[in-house]
Amino acid sequence: MKKEQINFFEELAYIQEYCVNVSLSKEDKYCNTEELLKDVTGEVIYRIMELFDGYGGELQRCNIVNTVTGEVINEGIELHDKCVEFLVSPYNANI
């Protein structure tokens, strides 16, 4: 793998480790497994969106491109700002 690819996967490994440890530290707050899983996966998605937005380690902002249309999906927005609202209510998000 190239250095950039290794850096990307290292950032993902860090995000996973961080989110698991944070969730374990507040394990008692959850009433059920679904609540725990939504919290953990939501945090992981948020951190990955931050990574794409250029807020992770050594990586710069990444463009997410629809390979069929050529459209840059994250053009003009910060993904991490939009994902929280959307994940809470995906069918009613005011995006």
Can you walk through the features of this model?
The protein has 95 residues and is mainly alpha-helical. 56% of the residues lie in helices and 0% in strands. It contains three helices and no strands. Helix 2 (33-52) runs antiparallel to helix 3. It is flat and about 45 Å long. 5% of the residues are buried.
Provide keyphrases for this structure:
95 residues; mainly alpha
Described by strand count, sense and barrel closure, the largest sheet is: none
Low-confidence stretches: none
What structural class is derived from the secondary structure elements? mainly alpha
Distance between the termini: 37 Å
**Overall outline:** flat
Share of residues in helices: 55-70%
Q: Which radius of gyration do the C-alpha atoms yield?
A: 15 Å
Let me know the average pLDDT. Answer: 89
Number of helices: 3
Percent range for β-strand residues: under 5%
Strand element count: 0
**What is the element string, with H for helices and E for strands?**
HHH
